[in-house]
Structure formats: C-alpha cells, structure tokens
Amino acid sequence: MKYAGGCHCGAVRFEVDAPAKIDALDCNCSICRRSGHLHLIVPRSRFKLLRGAKALTTYTFNSGVAKHQFCRTCGIKSFYIPRSNPDGVDINVRCLEPQPESLHIEPWDGRNWERNAAQLTHLSREPVPGS
What we know:
This protein is mainly β.
C-alpha cells in the first residue's frame, strides 16, 4: 500500500510503500521515549521524499550514524536514517496518511541498543522474490 506522510506544517512530504497492516516498534531509548516516534523501518527503495529537503535539519548524537531529520519549521521528525539500518528509512507511523487499517505496536528495548540492534537489520532489506 502507498502511504503519504509528512510533518505538521506540510513543508516535508513523502510517500512510502508499506503493508496495510503495520507492525511498529515503540523504542524506549532516550530520544524515542521523549519524541513518541513509532518505528516502521523500510528499504530506502520504498521511500520517496516528495518535497522539503531544504526544510529538513539533521540532529546526530553518540555515534553520529543515525541522521535524525526534523522539519526546521514545525519540529516534527516524520522519518530519519536509523543507526541500526543506515541503508533504510525509519518512518514515524504517526505521520502516515491514511493511518494504517491495522497497527500492532511492539515494545523494543533501545536503552540496550548495542545488545538488541541486530534484531532490526533485516527490516531494511528487500524481500526475496517468491518468499
């Protein structure tokens, strides 16, 4: 299914191909806990930024691998490049339009990122045809 998405003010808009029924991750790390980001990690080929590249500003911390991109006008992080999957895009499910017809939210222990990150690497890989 193709979803539209973006920030609150509309400066940043994107499309993403994702299932109608979404399994999202609710991370308890310091930034996700504070921002309420619900994670849907997809291969980069399934994401298309339609407008707003110049409206984005990037925040990095710790290792600097994750590129947390925010709209510089309204402050919403509708997507970012995650440290666990730098070859993919992490969409904030709360920024999708329409909202998924079915949403399953699974807690994920990002406070212990080093121990748990390998659980996510498959999410940005393209599926093997016929599987």
